[in-house]
Fold each of these.
Amino acid sequence: MYKFNYLRPTDTVTAINTYGTAGDGQYLAGGQTLIPVLKQRLAMPSELIDLAGVAELKGISVDAATITIGATTTHAEVAANAEVRHLIPGLANLAGGIGDPQVRNRGTIGGSVANSDPAGDYPAAVLGLGATIHTDRRNIASDDFFTDLFETALEDGELITSITFPLVKSTAYAKFNNPASRFAIVGVFICKTPDGVRVAVTGAGPCVFRAKAIENTLSTRFLPKALDEVTVSSDGLNADMHASAAFRANLIGVLARRAVAKLI
């Protein structure tokens, strides 16, 4: 690691002001990506602003139509929350399958979403459910948030404070994971609503994306075999040592069928 100043504010205003006065500051949430990056000297912040002490960024609240999850709420807390498990079971199941217990007890939903890792799980739930990302400056619809590989609509210094999910019980997530890291080689999140079906795919492309052809088919006929008629193109999909683009394209269809089967 390079030398940096470590700061631990206890409220959001102080955290934001600290970032604003830092030479080259960096927010730290769960640190599941940032700490390894620092260890490898791939980043050199002048100040590391730890958000763990900011109580207002934690917690889960429910109203008549939504669940709002604070940005520094851990994966384990989401997975174990009784209201999330009852009201959006697909989200709880997804959170419970992230990494291992150590990762789930340190990693945060806000950090995962802000990182926009192409193999991350949470982006699939955020996009699949049509969630809203709240920051210290504005509200961002999930359809506008994820833009590219490790890139989002967040501006420099913009801080995610919470994420709001609509209450939809018909949700399911199916993942083909890397057996070592448990990152998604491909993951498919399906959300069935009165207005149609949303399908978000992670692990297959530079960032999470919606599978519109699968959405259109399932909105008409919500059955696994209906997807036999859908061909997923491998154009633009990831190809690496773990899976080819063609393999990932096939997995999208396979996992979509599995997710649908959970809901019928």
Amino acid sequence: MSYIAGRVLFIPVARAALAVAAIAGLAAAALPVGLTSACLAAPEPDPVPKRWELNINPGPLRVATVDLPDGGVKTFFYFTYKAVNNTGTDLLFAPSFELSTEQGDLIHAGRDVPSAVTDEILRRLDHPFLQDQINVIGQILQGEENAKEGLVIWPVPTVKPGTVSIYVKGFSGETKVIDVPDKTAGAVKRITLSKQYMLRYNLPGELDLKDSAPLPVTERRWIMR
């Protein structure tokens, strides 16, 4: 079954953080602004999970153009996902999603998306068990029969986004603490990274804003971020 998602806020990512992410390469770390080093790289997740971890089945990333309540028209990225709890215990499920572009935008899902847009995309998908980003939060019981299916939406920041990455948090309890140089304070700062699921898309040229076909995934894996 295909899935799709939704909501968003634009937060520019500092060049320093982008430099760290580039050096980290496949680790794809995104460190706080002001933390830079020529040798920094995010650690990899443990090969065998030592903390709880939900199964995630992400659907394709798509584009939807929606008529807004004020009479305007706007385009959104959206995708759906399915979360299954096979950890052996019931858990609180409160996922979060971020989308980054090659231009340095970092977009938080769940903001600046009118409720009418969410309602319209839910209507188009016509999935009886699909929940929006707010209603999906809550206890997730064990087993496939208690899986949660969610929708996530982001406004499209540019028709030429280049490389797009989605970071999914809240599906793993694994964390790692690292020390990084804090350039602004001239000292070392300790930060905590969490295990997140990353999906990456290479989108050359201009997006077809009227096309809801799945956008091709070029990479998907767990990272520490």
Amino acid sequence: MGELDGKVAVVTGGGRGIGRAIAEAYLEEGARITLTAARKKAEVEDVVREAGPERALALMADVTKPEECERVVAETVERFGQVNVLVNNAGRGMKYVSSDFLTEPPRFWETDPETWKMVIETNVNGPFFIARAVVPRMIEQGGGSIINVSVNYETMKRRGFSPYGPSKAGLESESIIWAQDLEGTGIRLNIILPGGATDTGMIPPGVPDDVRSRLLRPEIIGPPAVYLVSDASRHVNGRRLIATNWSPENPDGLPISEGLGM
């Protein structure tokens, strides 16, 4: 038996990178999952082919549109009968602002307004829209778990990293407030982050091999992401878990995870 037997999870942006690593970890532990993609359905369909349609559902959905978030939740419940877990992973990064942002930090006043709005809408509004859609279902079922995927504090303050940094700061503020709002509902909300630069689609092509070799692998986030939605963490709400520091021997110690400042 897996740690997540009987649970149903929605993972936004589940076709690549961190989202795919979390989805695969959940499948390995017995969960059934819905994966969303905004642009490339082939990526989430790959996961469905590997897991089988009885255990995974691939949906095209833009989390910046409330009606599409409602549809994701409705189709998940229709297919699997319930929804116990939401992972807010879908996001837009700095590569949309500049292809060479790692070596030439862009200046905020040179950012195209439409790009700025796209990043903010995806990283800040998207988690709100789909959490808003899923929470009533979870309350009806008696509980659930929400994970918001974030980044290091240093990234939020790094020169040239707007609007990505501000968007993740906004996500963390949302998380602090929502975890408090959810107290007493049976739903818990926590933040997870890799703990460093990670080799995902957020990294633009052309990065030198010596730089890419130092990046974290997305799979590092799998074990703590499983823990946060398992029955073993029923007591955990409003926490910030860093994957590079997490271990099953000390899953809740402050050196491993930080409170959200509540």
